[in-house]
Amino acid sequence: MSELQLKGKQGKEASYFLGNVTSEQKQQALYKMAAALLSQQEAILKANKLDVEKAVQKGTSKAMLDRLSLNEERIHGMANGLRQVAALSDPVGEVLSMAKRPNGLQIGQQRVPIGVIGIIYEARPNVTCDAAGLCLKAGNAVILRGGSEAFYSNQAIVSVLSQAAASAGLPEHSVQLIEDTSRETALELMKLNEYIDVLIPRGGAGLIEAVVKNATVPVIETGTGNCHIYVDEEYDGDMAANIVINAKTSRPAVCNSAEKLIIHERAAHEFLPIIVQALREKDVEVRGDERALTIVPDLVPAGDEDWKKEYLDFIMAVKIVDDIDEAISHINVHSSHHSEAIVTTNYAHAQRFLQRVNSAAVYVNASTRFTDGEEFGFGAEIGISTQKLHARGPMGLKELTTLKYIIYGDGQIR
Amino acid sequence: MSELQLKGKQGKEASYFLGNVTSEQKQQALYKMAAALLSQQEAILKANKLDVEKAVQKGTSKAMLDRLSLNEERIHGMANGLRQVAALSDPVGEVLSMAKRPNGLQIGQQRVPIGVIGIIYEARPNVTCDAAGLCLKAGNAVILRGGSEAFYSNQAIVSVLSQAAASAGLPEHSVQLIEDTSRETALELMKLNEYIDVLIPRGGAGLIEAVVKNATVPVIETGTGNCHIYVDEEYDGDMAANIVINAKTSRPAVCNSAEKLIIHERAAHEFLPIIVQALREKDVEVRGDERALTIVPDLVPAGDEDWKKEYLDFIMAVKIVDDIDEAISHINVHSSHHSEAIVTTNYAHAQRFLQRVNSAAVYVNASTRFTDGEEFGFGAEIGISTQKLHARGPMGLKELTTLKYIIYGDGQIR
């Protein structure tokens, strides 16, 4: 039996048990996991050092090294994250819309764990802890497949977490790590339908595409964000500038930052020069379509390839449109369907944008940066879904559960 | 551009339009479609005759010929189905749980169409009409790929439906049929991620397996039903017999019929001989495990391969267990996770079964035959999902929609 088959089977068995533990038991386990991270932080930091040294030898970039490195503060952050998840209310067991049918059957839907959740992710070791905590809280077993760069760190973290879970009476295979980080094993994981109920990839566009293309297990696609802000012909200039600057520059490397600015032609002559100056003051490279260049000639010309691109950088491309419908159809065609915003003072335009833009989160007069589990009030998130089935937008604990019908009868036959 | 690429593109464009038509428009279109089926039934019956003649020449079985054949009554049935769907309330537009966040943002979820739904199905031409009606009512464009056996019938039905939809002001490509019924085209459809938002296979286990294995488009798995009835140690004998007979014999060829009977050993000595006789009176072949054979020696011995099998026939296999937990774990391992029922008078056992059995519909003291969109009060169904993501159990109009977050702000930045 391969490592994957074995861990899949163990995970499935653990999930049967986890589906029936009380909220209190899960909460205790999460608190114990947080305490164990702190009490065993030395071992984790030692393991992390091995990963970092290996990465330095390989000439890894500074940004990547920073994502990989752990320190006391980051381990405290991980422990705090687990405690926050422990304190959230348990979604499992909730019964929705139970009602009596004419024949006397009482039919309702009950929220239950999904079962075994697979997570495929890249370098950041804190994902190991965050994902384990959320999956467990929702009553799921989790099988983690991190990148080879963080191998020793992930191994140390999972060892600490699974021992702590076991000490709280949960199955020791509730949290498991795939130790073989080869591409072949990742592909095998994507086809492990017998044991894995859902696979969530967390990482760059390349990883997500590989999972969508190869998986036979159901996948929840997360993350790429080519987000747009549309400044309407009727707009408040200060609000528009604030929102654009915040959405572009407050954290350009995350998926909910804005990449594209669309401006109504009647607003462009006034607003474009102002916003270009403000963006440049924040070191943003502004690119423009032909019409934008006629207003601010020294913009970098935007090419066709710009419109679908997620920069994750201090770059923003501007397009000028004739009307709101051109903006909406440009967005619907080029967006990654993550988050889009309109800035307008016109009631009908606000409603039209909300109704017609086909993305996970559609805003009126607010920054796209709010698309986030904590900002939406979920307490934590496992990722942001950009697909339409099951979960769309930030995914919290509820999105890590499913529903089953429960039916109370007294002898009904059909 | 291939037929599929073209139809995919046209479907996508139609879906943008359909997402914004009023309920009234959709309702009018469905009534016109129903009327057109009746006024053009001659053309449909003529086309169906071609399919039936071809099938007869190929030596198709009587049962298959019956599924393929249309007549006036069946066309009336299809038209009535469309009228019923027309009369259902429109799920699109509903806003769920809108609430104000501490920063003043109002965040809610709005029900919207999925977009373009692909349906792959086998011989029955009435699926063409049912699926088109439901998808359209929920604001989706639909691309149908029926089997080659029903080619002329499907072509005639789709031609009538799409003309009627167009005459009601909906896009003519709202309902499209893939005319190339080759396997290659089916595979291409399963990978048409650019245009198809979700694929729903309707048919036998082989078709569903092929779709799950090959599709890169998100799939909703429907249908196989290896359903169980567990008769507990404390039980009402008449109720148990009624439920078993109903669940097995009222319509054995459908997925919610029961295939397995599990009996507590303390009930078996009394109940097994009674139920075997009753089942045999209905021409059911009863198979049994070793322990069942010690009680009723002339049962057909059940082999290992029986326990996962969906007979869809007048066959039922019986297993005797030591206690309710053995019944539950047998079900969780061998079931197709469709529908299961316990017959018991014991409160704690009823609750334990409901909580621990991991299937789409779990019953206490009722027949599994109720797992059905109409019986659940949805008015109609597009299939019964046996997967855990997005939809589980009977899928009605609501399951043909998705949610998006809509957010009202007044200048919030983060």
TrEMBL record, chains A, B:
Family in the record: Belongs to the gamma-glutamyl phosphate reductase family.
Naturally occurring in which organism (per UniProt): Priestia aryabhattai (Bacillus aryabhattai)
Xref: PROSITE patterns: PROA
A GO CC annotation given for this chain: cytoplasm
Domain of life: Bacteria
Entry function: Catalyzes the NADPH-dependent reduction of L-glutamate 5-phosphate into L-glutamate 5-semialdehyde and phosphate. The product spontaneously undergoes cyclization to form 1-pyrroline-5-carboxylate.
GO term, biological process aspect, one: L-proline biosynthetic process
The protein's annotated pathway: Amino-acid biosynthesis; L-proline biosynthesis; L-glutamate 5-semialdehyde from L-glutamate: step 2/2
Entry's localization field: Cytoplasm
Group of enzyme by EC: oxidoreductase
Entry protein name: Gamma-glutamyl phosphate reductase
Catalysis: reaction(s): L-glutamate 5-semialdehyde + phosphate + NADP(+) = L-glutamyl 5-phosphate + NADPH + H(+)
MF terms in GO: glutamate-5-semialdehyde dehydrogenase activity; NADP binding
InterPro entries associated with the record: Ald_DH/histidinol_DH, Ald_DH_C, Ald_DH_N, Aldehyde_DH_dom, G-glutamylP_reductase_CS, Glu-5-SA_DH, GPR_dom
CDD domains linked: ALDH_F18-19_ProA-GPR
All copies of domain Aldehyde dehydrogenase, residue ranges: 19-284, 307-377
EC number annotated for this UniProt entry: 1.2.1.41
Principal subcellular localization: cytoplasm
Keywords: Amino-acid biosynthesis, Cytoplasm, NADP, Oxidoreductase, Proline biosynthesis
